TrEMBL record, chain A:
Catalyzed reactions: 2-deoxy-D-ribose 5-phosphate = D-glyceraldehyde 3-phosphate + acetaldehyde
Keyword Lyase included in the entry's annotation: yes
UniProt keyword ATP-binding present: no
Alphabetized NCBIfam families for the sequence: deoC
Membrane-spanning segments: none
Protein EC: 4.1.2.4
Biological or metabolic pathway of the protein: Carbohydrate degradation; 2-deoxy-D-ribose 1-phosphate degradation; D-glyceraldehyde 3-phosphate and acetaldehyde from 2-deoxy-alpha-D-ribose 1-phosphate: step 2/2
Family: Belongs to the DeoC/FbaB aldolase family. DeoC type 2 subfamily.
Domain of life: Bacteria
A GO BP entry: carbohydrate catabolic process
Organism: Microbispora catharanthi
GO molecular function terms attached to this record: deoxyribose-phosphate aldolase activity
Pfam families the record matches: DeoC
Name of this protein: Deoxyribose-phosphate aldolase
TrEMBL record, chain B:
Coiled coil: none
Keywords: Oxidoreductase
Domain of life: Bacteria
Domain Aldehyde dehydrogenase: 27-257
GO molecular function: oxidoreductase activity
Key word Flavoprotein present: no
Name recorded for this polypeptide: Aldehyde dehydrogenase family protein
Pfam family, one: Aldedh
Keyword hit for Secreted: no
Amino acid sequence: MTTPLAEVASSPSTLRAFLHGLPGVDRVGADARAAMLGTRSIKTTAKKQAIDMAIGMVDLTTLEGADTPGKVRAMCAKAVRPDPADASVPPVAAVCVYPDLVATAVEALAGSGVKVASVATSFPSGRSSLEVKVAETSLAVAAGAAEIDMVIDRGAFLAGDYLKVYEEIVATKEACADAHLKVILETGELATYDNVRRASWLAMIAGADFIKTSTGKVSPAATLPVTLVMLEAVRDFLAATGRKVGVKPAGGIRTTKDAIKYLVLVNETAGPDWLDPDWFRLGASSLLNDLLMQRQKMATGRYAGPDYFTLD
Amino acid sequence: MSERTERLSVRKTYKLFIGGAFPRSESGRSYVVTSSKGDFLANAARASRKDARDAVSAARKAFSGWSGATAYNRGQILYRIAEMLEGRRTQFASEVADADGVSAKKAGELVDAAVDRLVWYAGWSDKIGAVLGSANPVAGPYFNLSSPEPTGVVAVVAPPAGPLLGLVSVIAPVIVTGNTCVVVASERAPLPAITLAEVLATSDLPGGVVNILTGSAAEIAPWLAGHMDVNGIDLTGADPELAVTCEELAAENLKRVLRPPADRVDWLADPGIGRMTAFLETKTVWHPIGI
């Protein structure tokens, strides 16, 4: 790296030169590596540990037009005590809601240790003016959100206007004050792994505390190879700058098997330091029930049924 | 290429039937199936508990669509299964003759009986409600109506004898009323069951309504009996010891249990409606008069 990272965003051309100077991603290699790590067999006590670890990393999410305060309160109760019949199940890391429901979630989770995350910046499309995005972020933070999940302007990114994306992330980070900023790259719209690597670096240089794969509204959402590329980016970023950034795959992770594959990927790519809810999260809703069902199967020796867990 | 080489016949791989597809066992295991005389017939997949779990998921997924279909539609599909079975009469007759050691003539009769059994149950689809349902007189201004409803996902341990007729006789009554099922086929004679699966797959029967596993009932049935997402279990083909184990496991989520028959069953006899009622439950609705 010829230019110090602090200066790469000084002009559109230096930023562009830096991002396009990143090494390209070997697509076939990344796919093969992710597929190979997905075949690791995690059984018995290791599986038990992995399930509890995954539960503690879940960002329990509801992002529907039909969300009501009642639904958010019910979800918060589940976040604190995922299985009402079993107190040994750890609480999840956070709940993730739309900005207008942050106050409801904050009230419901007071004193529980479960954080409240809010999406912001015209989620999920990100198509609005910077003023609106910053104002939305400030409102969510004022309502008590401890974490903000922002979306990048994919249109600007794909058009090559990297500085615009950078400046939006910087402005949103400022509006976050003490709240953690997760930057959603929406990898399903970025087309190539090279773009995923560029967007990851762009977000980290701009001050992201976390980089997140997807909104969950676009298919494909999180995939193992994309997460692999992002984990490599945070690892390399730590080596280059000394600052550690978290990763959050979100969307499409529905089974315990999937979740454990992600944990293996984290361990083998970024390292065990990232196996912590402060540095790795799983954005999901239906995943939690599958984790609970697997947990119950291991405890009782019989296959569990969805009838015995709450709907969400 | 002057010499003619003899053509090699293409052999069928006997696989499982789960969710409308024909996967191999997740475990990769298989076992040798022999005829009644001990001759090699084929290698069949030996299903594991995980195959059983996948089959239950497929059956659960299919349940809302199948139970929500009209009774008329379900009857038509059962009739269609009978049509398809009739078209494969020769193939089934030879498989039944191999498996049971019966004469070709007798085997043909057993296949005919299986076709007739399907048609018989197909006719029941829109009549069972009239027989078991009722308009109940109540002391108040209400209509009070009871109607039979399907139980849900039913595990079926198919009888070891009667590889086709016995199998059809336990599957048809479970699905005609709207249940979906996971069937553990006869361990000794599983080949007609897999051929039946090919018939089911081409009969407009939605994938997952019937799932067929081959392998050891003693290995798989207890997992199905203990599964919290299975609502009923038919133990017709279970030996006494296995039946007791399964019934104990089934108690955890109060499954409906159909115990194995005390005496040897004559599958050619009139079946009656007992196999249908075993996996039906009654729903009663109170509706105010005049609204």
